Amino acid sequence: MNRTRLALAAMAALLSAPVGARAREPVVGERRVSFLDDVAIERMQHVRLRAWQPAAPYRAARPAPPLALVTVLRDPRTHVYRMYGRAEGEPGAAVCVEGPDGVNWPGAPKALDLPAGARANFAPLLDANPKAPAAERYKALAGGKALRAFGSPDGVTWRALGDGAAIASDTPAFDCANRALWDPLRRQYVAYVGERRDGRRVISRCTSKDFLTWTRPGPIGGALPGEQLAPGWFAVREDDSTPYVALAVRVAPSGSGDVVLLSSRDGEDFGRAFPDAMVRPHGPGPWPDWRRMSPWYVQPVSRGLHTYTFMGEGALYAGGDRCCLHPAGRLSSAAAGAAEGELVTAPLTVSANVLHMDFATGAAGWVKVEVLTPDGKPIEPYTLENAVRKTNDRHHIAEWKDHNRVELVGRRVRLRFVLKDADLYSFQFSARK
């Protein structure tokens, strides 16, 4: 079933309508449940899902050089960040620059030792496959009309893997960041590559057990009518309760681009619950080519008391001197305005006795939560009448009169969140306070 059509239908329906009548996966209570899609939601009233745009771009003290089709990797052994990309004005020159934190880049670009065929559209990855040989800790896809596989022990000196093309397409559009990664749940490599279908750019997916022999690419969806998408940044599923997440580049007719948020439960069919741009190009224009808008990476970093996510945006800003700042774990929310709204979850199993919530409210806003049986009856003493209103912009523990623990471990329940002028980002059962 096409999740893009479902998302559009849900947004067009009345706010009080139940969310989707399709089969749902069990929601695992001990995992953080977010709202990147509507799988955890049974129904909403006066509540909508929305993606959050990053705060004003963060300016690096030591900006990156102007590169296109950028990838940033952090070596877990050396703790060094490397930015890979194509030097401006030199289409065949693949270079890397090193930095201490993934934001500042004091080093000078240095040319990579690449074999023939690796200079076009070079897109490396740090292989997370535990069985990967040391000589191939780094891998890459690169090429023009077809993509070849490459390997490296250190991320600097590279060699070809196998003979001939690894990924081929009848309608290639490989002039983009063709992203490959290891999927630990399915124990296989996955590549998200560019293709052209019916005259438009699409993102396609293929898989491999050994990084050498790949399946034929097939479109993943995610585009609204008339749109063109190119690969950006992809994250694999952490466990059975979380979705695959993608930041894709939406290619405009003018040749510029922005970033949209996609998600999927199987990694194959991606939907778009949020049709608007998540990251917009900045400045008065003219805006640069979409290849310089491709997200580099999503990297958690600490700034003061908070953890944020930096989403690098290529060489968009005068030599790549800015990154988008985004509070960690807050890509999307279930939001209510001045009118009181409510969200009821699909059934879930209580696996711990403390219910954590991450939300933000206005000065007059608040969030309350009620625990229901699977058939929708309130469970004493966790009723709405007993629930304590929570306000502010932070993580909170759900509380009821004289109770801050949910003594229902092992039971199947629903949660009913009632909110006003508030954004609920996620919730989670945990034994920790």
Topology:
Blueprint: H1 3-12, E1 33-34, E2 41-45, E3 48-51, E4 55-59, E5 67-74, E6 81-87, E7 94-99, E8 110-111, E9 123-126, E10 138-142, E11 148-152, E12 159-161, E13 179-183, E14 188-197, E15 200-208, E16 218-219, E17 229-235, E18 244-251, E19 257-264, E20 298-303, E21 306-312, E22 322-327, E23 332-336, E24 341-345, E25 348-349, E26 354-372, E27 393-397, E28 412-430
Antiparallel strand pairs: 1-28, 2-24, 3-23, 4-22, 5-6, 6-7, 7-8, 9-10, 10-11, 11-12, 13-14, 14-15, 15-16, 17-18, 18-19, 20-21, 21-22, 23-28, 24-28, 25-28, 26-27, 26-28
Could you explain the architecture of this structure?
It contains one helix and 28 strands. The chain is mainly beta and 433 residues long. It folds into two domains: 3-52 and 332-430, Jelly Rolls; 56-327, Glycosyl hydrolase domain, family 43 (Tachylectin-2, Chain A, 5 Propeller), CATH 2.115.10. Strands 1, 2, 3, 23, 24, 25, 26, 27 and 28 form a nine-stranded antiparallel β-sheet that branches. A hairpin with a 6-residue loop joins strand 11 (148-152) and strand 12. The longest helix is centred in the first third of the chain and has 10 residues, at 3-12. It is elongated and about 70 Å long. Mean pLDDT is 82; it is low at 1-23 and 302-321.
Question: Can you describe this structure in just a few lines?
Answer:
With 433 residues, the protein is mainly beta. It contains one helix and 28 strands. The chain folds into two domains: 3-52 and 332-430, Galactose-binding domain-like (Jelly Rolls), CATH 2.60.120; 56-327, Tachylectin-2, Chain A.
